[in-house]
Amino acid sequence: MANRWRGDGGWDEPRSPRGSKWIAWVGVAVFVYGLGVGTGALVQSSSNGAGLTGAVPPVNSTPSQAVPSSPQQSTGSPNTSGATLSPAMDSGVITRIYRNSLPSIVTITAVSNSKGSGGPSEDIGTGFFINNQGDIATNAHVVNGQKTVTVTIAGKDHKGIVVGADTIDDLAIVHVTPPAGIQPLPIGTAKNLQPGDLVIAIGNPFQLTDSVSAGIVSGLNRSMPTQSGRVMSGLVQTDAALNPGNSGGPLLNSQGQVVGINTAIESPVQGSVGIGFAIPIDRLMKLLPSLLRGAAVTHPWLGIEALDLSPALAQQGHLPVAQGVLVMSTVPGGPAAKAGLRGDTGTSTNPKYDGDIITAVNGTPVTGVASLTADISNDPIGSVVHLTVLRHGRQITVNVTLAPWPKTLPSAVNNAP
Predict the structure, then answer these.
(1) Per residue in 81-115, is it b (16+ CB within 10 Å) or e — as a string?
(2) Residue 247's closest CA among 339, 359, 125?
């Protein structure tokens, strides 16, 4: 079964009979009136990890549920990942980075009124100082749309002003009056990361403040859909233990530099199973001027509903290529519809597989929805992208003028050929 990406909110795919995994944003929602601790938005995945959906089921645990230490955990290091570390790592690298970094890492609490919960709730996550003027980086889902949050620094609460947030890239900046002596964490880059590199995560999993875990870079350039419907690409995958509450915290390299911002986990148990994801710090640095000004961050938008092509889907639909993006429908009035891109003429349950197939963007081959998103993400709003398209077996070029991602997405509908 192919992964189906919806321009209005995620992936469509039936659950595997072997059970489901979940992608969970790793912030913690603590309901004030005793309703327990749970994750924030959850996105369902199939058991093979390939398909992610936009389902948002309620998930609760209790505040007392701490993750037990692994028998492999060293007693001489604050590592909590359960991974077997080399003697060089265990002898002090993680401890040194932890001690040096901890004063720059904070707890962020956002209070909001939750519909249907019976009262206000708290979203608890992590953040870290990026300069000595009091600016703190975190996830947008940690601040949860609030204008002010509580920032706990060394056990003392401070009022934090949310100066900028980008919900699509899940990034936010919070400002506080900085206590004396606050130092920012050193900023590195994710561009030089390699699978196998040591990484360290520090945060507040399950409200266990100042917790550290360590592991390696497990993969690069991972992608996943967000609740907005846009696919986040270029993510860093790690097996450093991430749990609810780690959201917004730093992922550090062996030099103690921030290389990522922890944001999500994939898990069948709403807890760490060794598959976590971080937003590359480079993305924050690119957007930082806009976030610090409080300016709106815009992202380019095509306005399609699409399927990743695979050899199995190509065989099933008798398609001429086995790689690319099959357009199932376009959003009325969206950029793709205006440019004349065509969707499938069948139904969602009985497609004809006759929609346009996007095979390249500006001459760069497209492997799927994630690569299509990555290809257009660097193009400015209003620019024209040249899509190489197969339409009924004939190659054509469709020129699409990119529009800004809308605040509210209308439903996509099938276009007649």
Answers:
(1) bbbebeeebbeebbbebbeebeebbbbbbbbeebe
(2) 125
Query: Cα 238 to the chain's mean position, in Å?
Result: 13
70-79, 160-169, 178-187: least confident range = 70-79
Contact 339, 401 (CB under 8 A): yes
Structure tokens at 131: 């300069």
Q: Of 404, 389, 111, which is closest to residue 230 (Cα–Cα)?
A: 404
Number of residues that this document lists for the chain = 417
According to DSSP, the β-strands at 28-31 and 36-39 are: antiparallel
62 by DSSP, 3-state: which? coil
CA dist 416 to 1, 213, 340, 383, Å? 25, 53, 11, 27
- Least trusted range by pLDDT, from 60-64, 191-195, 263-267: 60-64
Q: Which residue has the higher pLDDT, 229 or 147?
A: 147
Burial class (CB in 10 A: 0-12, 13-18, 19+), 257: middle
Consecutive H or E run containing 114: strand 105-114
| Domains with residue ranges and CATH for the chain | 19-297 (2.40.10.120), 300-404 (2.30.42.10)
DSSP 3-state assignment of 141?
A: helix
Give pTM, 2 decimals: 0.74
Q: State the Cα angle at 88 between 85 and 93, rounded to 5°.
A: 90
pLDDT value, residue 411: 52
Distance between CA atoms of residues 225 and 122, nearest Å: 25
CA distance 181 to 399: 54
User: Tens digit of pLDDT for each residue in 168-193?
Assistant: 899 999 999 999 999 999 999 999 99
Percent helix, strand and coil across the chain, each to the nearest 5: 15, 40, 50
DSSP 8-state assignment for residue 315:
H
Residues with active-site annotation: 141, 170, 247
Identify whether the C-beta of residue 212 lies closer than 8 Å to the C-beta of residue 80. Answer: yes
Q: What is the DSSP letter of 104?
A: G
Give me the DSSP letters along 88-103: HIIIIIHHHHHHHHGG
What token pair was written down for 204? 């507040």
The pair phi, psi for residue 349, each rounded to 5°, is: -90, -20
